[in-house]
Amino acid sequence: MITNHRAAKRSLLPILLFISLFLGTGLTLQFFGVDHPFQQLPGQVAIIPALILAVILNPKSLADSIAVLIKGAGNDNIITMCFIFLLAGAFSSVATATGGVDAVVNAGLLLVPPGYILPGLFVIAALISLAMGTSVGTIAALAPIALGFAEQTGTGEPLIAGALLGGAMFGDNLSIISDTTIASTRTQVVGMKEKFWENMKFALPAFIITTLVFGFLATDSAPITPEAFSWAATLPYLAILVLAVSGMNVFLVLLLGIVMAALQGVFFTGYEISALGTDIAGGFADMQGIFILAMFVGSLGEFIKQQGGLQWISDHINRLAEKVSRTGNFAQQFAIGVLVFITDYCIANNVVSIVVTGDLSRDLARKHDISPKRSATVLDTFACIAQGFLPYGNQALLLSGTFAISPWEVVTHNYFGAALLVVTIAVIFLGTLSQNPLVISE
Q1: Terminal alpha carbon distance of the chain
Q2: Across the strands, what pairs with 122?
Q3: Contact 413, 162 (CB under 8 A)
Q4: Angle at 145 between CA 26 and CA 150, to 5 degrees
């Protein structure tokens, strides 16, 4: 048991090494004024020493370690995200080449009040993600448009990326058809509608706060006069948004988007169809870095799971929560959140994190009289908060690749995530404020 206990703790060292190298190098270079500090040691390179350490720490043979590495990289969720990355890159590349991005940006400038691009994008992303139920799908559809807004208005790319990330995570957390909602309600055995209305207590105040913050930040933006554009060039974007919101599979949405962008270019902007293959390949190449990093993160997470690192975290958080007694179960609700939060930082997938920690969370909820709709909400909300601040998560990586900025710049401008964290803690705490004071057991 001691050996397993030690192995479980050691299995967390590689992820700590990766975070230290990736963030430590970037922050250090930023302190010394180096241009593009987080791009000097890209995540897909910084994670290699961590993978080597994971192989060294694995008590089994080298062949077994390689098998674990491949299994993690080939995880269904990881491969799904990687294909979405590639198709999103291809669509962005083709849409840019055919003039679609410029057309949509200028159309958007007509619709969004001057100086309010930031709150406008945040609200649009929130509504679309609420309807689609997927943050990655929302980002894939809107990121090229948002990038065009950044270039046309002069608003900083990190701010616009943060607004898009926050809006996308709003729907990921709240939507009834979100995969995190499905996972959290199934593991906590509660209806989706019950969870939705409970979740609204957390998400809606954070949404309002974030909209006001972005409105304040955007008021000094200079008015922009849209350039002449063809409405026909906006049709591919309008089509993929409608199809995505209608529930069509994101793969089909992006494939149809590529085809429609190419066709409208041929018929309306003089696009040479012979360039389509090159443009698609260029879009694939733009996503190469995040593709590799996503697979490597999957590998690292598999090592941690197989060696007991996640279970070790769960056991310690559970024991800590048991030491803290408070009528109203504040400590236990918070323990559920911390458990899934830390798990997500280890495996970089909020859905998988909910599934992994679901049983323990349900046991804590039943033992301490936490309603299933509340435990499902806390589980989902903290998982989405963690994912929104994860610089090696799928959402941040996709935005990083599209905007050509570091993932760290993306997550540090996720104001919705910060607001949601504060609101969530406040709602949980205020719900127990009138009950007995905190008591620490001996």
Answers
A1: 26
A2: none
A3: yes
A4: 50
Nearest to 343 by CA among 395, 383, 302, 393: 383
pLDDT of residue 387: 93
**Residue spans per domain, the chain:** 2-70, 76-289, 308-440
Q: Tens digits of per-residue pLDDT, 292-347? A: 877 888 888 888 888 887 777 777 776 776 666 555 577 788 888 988 898 888 77
**What letter represents residue 280's amino acid?**
I
Burial class (CB in 10 A: 0-12, 13-18, 19+), 268: middle
CA distance 298 to 348: 8
Q: What is the mean pLDDT of residues 423-428?
A: 92
**Which band of pLDDT confidence, cut at 50, 70 and 90, is reported for residue 109?**
low
Cα distance between residue 282 and residue 39, in whole Å: 20
Under 8 Å CB-to-CB from 78, ≥6 apart: which residues? 72, 294, 295, 297, 298, 349
Residue 348 tokens, joined: 């970089």
Residue at token pair 């701010």? 159
pTM metric for this prediction: 0.70
Which parts of 272-388 fold into alpha helices (H)? 276-286, 288-306, 309-323, 330-347, 350-367, 372-388
Given this model, what pLDDT does residue 105 score?
Answer: 62
